[in-house]
Write a structure and sequence with these properties.
The chain has about 190 residues and is an alpha/beta fold. The chain has a single domain, classed as Nuclear Transport Factor 2, Chain: A (Roll), CATH 3.10.450.50. Helices cover about 25% and strands about 35% of the residues. The protein has five helices and seven strands; from the N terminus they run E-H-H-H-H-E-E-H-E-E-E-E. The chain is globular, with a radius of gyration of 17 Å. The relative contact order is 0.20.
């Protein structure tokens, strides 16, 4: 998470099946629009002004008593990811800290390993660079299990294209509620050619 965001495009296609034998509740009802949902309204309060329109979820596990539906869980993780990529959060380590899991780890596109503490300490130096912000695209997300969301997306900064994967975990926050936090992130440079 060391790059800013100039824009984002997120798409959602269809609904994945509920994992066999793992659902304790009814499957989500299809929407009249063919399963597409607009995330723009949900993302506006937390976004950094980037054009996010739709999200993709390919599979999920649903539970009857879950207040965190797959759509809401994926939406919350996308909001958190975009916030972490934005300059407003990255320039305020206390705000970034609220979005990073206590056990956060990262393997950056450079191959460097980051801990939560090291990343928070380095945020001011990332903000000091004059490089253009990265563009975010091809973002998709899915609920892996209750309390776990995986996001995949690509960032482009100049000629450098990086494929990224993030794991978000739902846990208690300091106020006694629940909050989605980034548990692990990995960036892999895209092959050229």
């Amino acid at each position: 998470m060391v790059e800013g965001v100039a824009g984002a495009a997120v798409r959602r296609r269809g609904r994945g099946p509920v994992a066999a034998g793992r659902s304790t509740g009814p499957a989500p009802r299809p929407r009249a629009s063919g399963g597409d949902i607009s995330l723009a309204a949900a993302l506006l309060p937390c976004s950094t002004g980037h054009p996010v329109t739709r999200a993709r979820r390919t599979s999920h596990v649903a539970t009857a008593d879950s207040a965190h539906t797959p759509d809401r869980s994926v939406s919350a993780a996308i909001r958190g990811e975009l916030a972490l990529l934005g300059r407003e959060v990255r320039s305020a380590p206390d705000r970034a800290a609220r979005l990073l899991d206590p056990e956060f780890s990262e393997i950056g596109a450079s191959g460097r390993r980051w801990t939560r503490e090291a990343l928070l300490a380095a945020l001011p130096t990332f903000e000091a660079d004059d490089e253009p912000a990265a563009e975010v695209g091809e973002m998709s997300g899915r609920l892996l299990a209750p309390g776990w969301v995986q996001l995949r997306f690509t960032t482009v900064r100049g000629e450098r294209r990086v494929h990224r994967t993030s794991l978000w975990r739902l846990g208690e926050d300091t106020e006694g509620g629940e909050r989605w936090r980034l548990y692990h992130h990995q960036g892999t440079p895209a092959a050229t050619g």
